[in-house]
Amino acid sequence: MMLKWSIIFIIIALIAGFFGFIGIAGAAIEIAKFIFYIFIILFIMSLIGSFMRRR
Questions:
Q1: C-alpha span between 55 and 51 (Å, rounded)
Q2: In whole angstroms, what is the distance from residue 20 CA to residue 29 CA?
Q3: Confidence check: pLDDT of 37 > 90
Q4: Which of 13, 16, 20 is CA-nearest to residue 35?
Q5: Which Pfam families has this protein been placed in (predicted)?
Q6: DSSP conformation class of 48
Q7: Which terminus of the chain has a smaller tally of CB atoms within 10 A, N or C?
């Protein structure tokens, strides 16, 4: 779900950048990066948790 939102914000940023809305594009990229980093952190935590349960 979070990766989907990250991709949506990147697409919004690309479209806004194409049409010249630099402020909106910059904000959308920052939001997409933030959501993507949260996704990566939660994914790593999930992997660690699944390895701990197997033992």
A1: 7
A2: 14
A3: yes
A4: 13
A5: DUF1328
A6: H
A7: C
Distances (CA, A) of 23 to 5, 15, 16, 38: 19, 12, 9, 23
Cβ 28 vs Cβ 12: under 8 Å: yes
Token pair 């197997």 is found at: 54
CA 43/CA 49 separation, integer angstroms: 10
pLDDT of residue 39: 92
Closest CA to 31 of 8, 50, 49, 55: 8
pLDDT value at 25 more than 80: yes
User: Hey, where are the domains in the chain?
Assistant: 2-50
